Amino acid sequence: MATAAKYVSRYDERVNLVKDTLRKHSKLDEKASLELAERILDALNHIPEKVR
Fold first, then answer.
1. Is the N end or the C end of the chain the one with fewer CB atoms within 10 Å?
2. Rounded to two decimals, what is the model's pTM?
3. How far apart are CA 15 and CA 44, in angstroms?
4. Could you give the CA distance from residue 34 to residue 23 in angstroms, rounded to a whole number?
5. What is the rounded CA–CA span in Å between residue 28 and residue 31?
6. Up-side HSE of residue 19: CA atoms within 13 Å toward CB?
7. Integer distance in angstroms from the first to the last C-alpha of the chain?
8. Burial of residue 37 (number of CB atoms within 10 Å: 0-12, 13-18, 19+)
9. Furthest CA-CA distance within the chain
10. Could you say which DSSP state residue 26 is in?
């Protein structure tokens, strides 16, 4: 029986990585850590590539 792989975008992978790290090292709940992870990635994405 074959199972279909669910597509997860690279952005979603990065958001989940940051969210999981925030949850592991803080007392934030799922929703708060997800919102903060999205804000963090948005801020990082606004840094010019040459500076990163």
1. N
2. 0.80
3. 12
4. 9
5. 8
6. 14
7. 45
8. buried
9. 48
10. S
